[in-house]
UniProtKB/TrEMBL annotation:
<dbReference type="InterPro" id="IPR001128">
    <property type="entry name" value="Cyt_P450"/>
</dbReference>
<keyword id="KW-0349">Heme</keyword>
<protein>
    <submittedName>
        <fullName>Cytochrome P450</fullName>
    </submittedName>
</protein>
<dbReference type="InterPro" id="IPR017972">
    <property type="entry name" value="Cyt_P450_CS"/>
</dbReference>
<dbReference type="InterPro" id="IPR002397">
    <property type="entry name" value="Cyt_P450_B"/>
</dbReference>
<feature type="region of interest" description="Disordered">
    <location>
        <begin position="1"/>
        <end position="22"/>
    </location>
</feature>
<keyword id="KW-0560">Oxidoreductase</keyword>
<keyword id="KW-0479">Metal-binding</keyword>
<keyword id="KW-0408">Iron</keyword>
<dbReference type="InterPro" id="IPR036396">
    <property type="entry name" value="Cyt_P450_sf"/>
</dbReference>
<comment type="similarity">
    <text>Belongs to the cytochrome P450 family.</text>
</comment>
<keyword id="KW-0503">Monooxygenase</keyword>
<dbReference type="Pfam" id="PF00067">
    <property type="entry name" value="p450"/>
</dbReference>
Amino acid sequence: MTDGRCPVTHAVPPHRLDPTGAHQHAVNDELRARGAAVPVLLPGDVPAYAITRHQELKDFVTHPDVAKNACHFAALRNDELPPGWPMRTFATVRGMVTADGEDHRRLRSLVTRAFTPRRVEALRPVVHELTGTLLDRLARAAAADPDGVADLRRHFALPLPMSVICRLLGVDDAYQDRLHELSNEIVSTRTAPERVPAANREMVAVLGQVAAARREAPGDDLTSALIAAREESGDRLSEEELIGTLLLMVIAGHETTLNLITNAVRALCNHRDQLELVRSGAASWGDVIEETLRYDSPVSFFPFRYPTRDLPVGDTVIPKGAPVLVSYTSAGRDERAYGPGADRFDVTRGARHLSFGHGAHVCLGAPLARMEAVIALEALFTRFPGLDLAVPDEELVPHASFVGNSPQKLPVRLGAAHSG
C-alpha cells in the first residue's frame, strides 16, 4: 500500500471535518493533495484518518489487517469518546457492516439468502407504479406554488426509495416518515449529543415493533424471511443482530438512493449537453447513474474501519486502532484514477467507481438502488423534459453531514409536461 518510499506518521495538523458537510469537493481536493491517508478530527475532537485516493482506498478496504468490528476501536475500548458522541452508532450497531471474518460471512449469508435477485426484480412494477404516483405529486406541488417551484428531493427523490425499502422490509406506511426523521438524525454529524442516544433508542423501538408485527403475521417480505432464518437456525441471528440489520437496511436502503437520484438530477440540470447525449441514444440512463456515483457519490466519508496493526498507507502510518473513514466523493474525482478531467461530469466515461464499496463489504443493495434510480430518472425527464433548477447551483445548501452527500433541498421548475 506504499509507493516504495518510507512512510512516516504525519506531523501536520489534522483537518477538522465540517459537520455541516459544506464544500465537500473543495475539501476533498485539498485532502487528496495532502496524501492518500490524511489525519482528520471528527466531532468531539476525536482523531481519525481519511483515505482520499482511489487506488489506496481500494487496497485499504480489502487489506487483511483492516477490521470493521469496533472491538478494534482504541478510543471506544478505552472509554475516551465524549458523551453522546454523534458517530457512535456507526461503530456499535450490530450487523454486517460492523462484522469481520466468519461473523460477517454468517450475517451476510443470511441476508443474501433472503434478499434474492428474484425479490429485487419483483419490486420493479412497484417502483414503476410509485414513480408515476410521485410524479403526479411533484406536479401538484409545483402547481400549488406561486412561482411554480417544487422541492424534487422532498416530493420525489425521498418518498420513492423510502416506500420501496419499507415495502421490501414489510414496514407499515405509518412508520415511514418517522423512520426517515430518525435515520436523518443518526446519519447527521450535527445531531446534538443529547439527541443521539434518544434517536437510537427510538429507532430500535420502532424496528422492534416492525419485527414483532412480522412475527405475528409473517409475509413475503425481507423481515419475515430474516426472522424465519433466525428461527430455523437457532442462535445464528440474534435479536440485536436482526434489529441492527433492519436499521442498516432502512438507512442505507433509502438515504443512499435518495441522494443518488437528487445528485443525478442536479448534475443533469447543470450539464444539459450530457442530458442530450442520453436523449439522442449516445448514452443510457444507466450511464448517468454510474457517472453520478463517481462524480458526486451519495456517500462521502464513510465510517469506520480500524487497522489491527500500525499500517502504512501512502506516506502515512495509520496507528493501530485508529478509526478510518473512506471518502468515496474524494476517490471519485482522483485524477490518478480518472485523468485530468476527473472533476467533469461525462456520462460516456464508462469508468469504474467504488461508491458501492469494494471487497467483502460491497453493498448488497446496489442492484435495487440502480434499478430505482434508472426508472426514476427516465420517467422524470420523459414527463418533464424541460425540468431545471429553480435556483443557482451555488445556492443549494448541503445536507448537514460529511457522511451523506447531497443538498438539503432541490428546488426545480418542471416546465411543460410531455403530452405523450
